[in-house]
Amino acid sequence: MSVIRLLVLGAVRQHGRAHGYQVRNDLEYWGAHEWSNAKPGSIYHALKQMAKEGLLHAHEIAPSTAGGPPRTEYEVTEQGTEAYFRLLRESLTSYDQKPDVLSAGLGLMVDLSREEALELLERRLRAIGEWRSAVTEYYTPADGPGQLGHIGEIMDFWVHSADTGAEWTRALMERIKGGAYTFAGEGDPFVGVLADGEENPYATGERHPGDAR
């Protein structure tokens, strides 16, 4: 799945309408440039491509009185909303070895209802169990990794990763069941984006031609 699309759609959706630099600023504020491919070029490319595909609507904004080029503000379309929730649900249910997939889903999961988030995490637990079972068809953890030579360490790592992932998922589900966080329909959500003009303490400072568009 495309993590950059999920992140960009999520950031635009939280603003209602946002220009490219706002989206970049938000993703850097979330630290997404450290744990995903949310680099400036990827962000601006995703915005333009999704606008071409009808997932975003591009609004041309006149230059400000202070000068500078006109900017494009993006808004998530109905088709884009459908794509966003499809990607979000997939990120929480699939047992993907890449941490950016789950990280993106966790950062946006409160856009779902509490009940649906729990249901998706339950599906994730089942997927972890199925994946672990597939590994242990060829590897018996009790016999240790040495049974397959040093290659057995790979299998051992996979099994331990699955066990740790399942334990963590159960703990998250318990926190959510206990009332942690504000999910869709429960009241004012946690504000995870920067206000227009608000300084970003985590900005990389790297300049990109797309920042001014």
Automatic annotation (TrEMBL):
Residues 8-83 form the Transcription regulator PadR N-terminal domain. Signal peptide: none annotated. The lineage of its organism: Bacteria, Bacillati, Actinomycetota, Actinomycetes, Kitasatosporales. It comes from the Bacteria. This is PadR family transcriptional regulator. InterPro entries: Metal_resp_DNA-bind_regulator, Tscrpt_reg_PadR_N, WH-like_DNA-bd_sf, WH_DNA-bd_sf. Pfam families: PadR (PF03551).
